[in-house]
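Supplementary Text 2. Reproducibility record for the structural model of the 417-residue chain.

All settings were left at their defaults, and a single model was retained for analysis rather than an ensemble. We include the record here because the model underlies the residue-level annotations in Supplementary Table 4.
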Amino acid sequence: MTLRRVVVTGLGALTPIGNTVEEYWNGLINGVSGAAPITYFDTTNFKTKFACEVKNFKVEDFIDRKEARKMDRYAQYAMVASEEAVNDAGFNMDTLDKDRVGVIWGSGIGGLETFQEEVIGWATGNGVPKFNPFFIPKMIADIAGGHISMKYGFRGPNFTTVSACASSTNALIDAFNYIRLGHADVMVSGGSEAAVTIAGMGGFNALHALSTRNDDPATASRPMDKDRDGFVLGEGAGALILEEYEHAKARGAKIYCEIGGGGMSADAHHITAPHPEGLGAKNVMLNCLRDAGLRPEDVDGVNMHGTSTPLGDIAESKAILEVFGDHAYTLNLNSTKSMTGHLLGAAGAIETIASVLSIKHGIVPPTINHFTDDENIDPKLNFTFNKAQKRDMKVVMSNTFGFGGHNACVLVKKLEE
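Retained model, structure tokens:
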């Protein structure tokens, strides 16, 4: 069968460095750090006292206060980002066939804050179970996609992907496949996360996964830097409207780019650590190129998973050299997590948006906070350190890797009519 082409026609973002796509992009190209002391709770007894929180966000500016109380923050973020994306796509809701529009969302954790609050309430109570009637529907990881579909009446395929930090990239790949296989014409896809909580920070600290650079949060996320000491936890949401090409053309839609392909793989190695030689990362990029029908030398850039962990950055760098060979030295590599922190299940969505916008604007966002080369990482690789670079970007890959060894990669490319 002939696979249908899929394009991107709408974007929405709510991030630690900007609450709209425009603000997010401006933060990226100007190298803005989103890390700052945590405001949500008292961090006195925590090893890490900072994170990349969403800033200046008032949910009542977007969602009726009564409705917002029925949603965990991760679902609120999803609603805001998806609204921007749907509006950006410019649909005529009166003529849109809503049976052919679906929602595939991603979240690695879901309503962690809701779960935390309800369990603490039970533990500190008198033993009588007085749970909020919305406890379960606020907490479950699939509810964000449900809320999005109910708001707009989208009745097509609807589910949530959960693959830790690869969740929203998996969601995008699923949405891409549902359209090209003919199961839908339009998909709202992306991911959201709100794990900057007592449980989230405490749990990741216990894993020794987070940076503890409390004296200088703004420079704590240091992908590929010798002195990196862990990732910085972020939060927010990213949404993309994927649409069948002819459907988009017929309604005169603005088209950002084309989705070229998606790849998936497993490390089959360790519950949290990457394969030391980057085997799963290598395979996922090769699978993505194969799916897109492209060669390694066709690629201009890779938005790396690049979390700023000691092992992860080395493994991914090795994998890029394995996949691209000498062409690796001509690539623009970058890690936007140096600015946004790690949005866990939402990382893939906001990083794919960054990749889409790098094609649109011909600018590669930087990897900030680089001070010292790591002797274990090839210094000839161009990680776009500290300053954005202008370049005609035709093909960009975006990597995301999750606990459990889940790897996902999506490829976006300039539209060729």
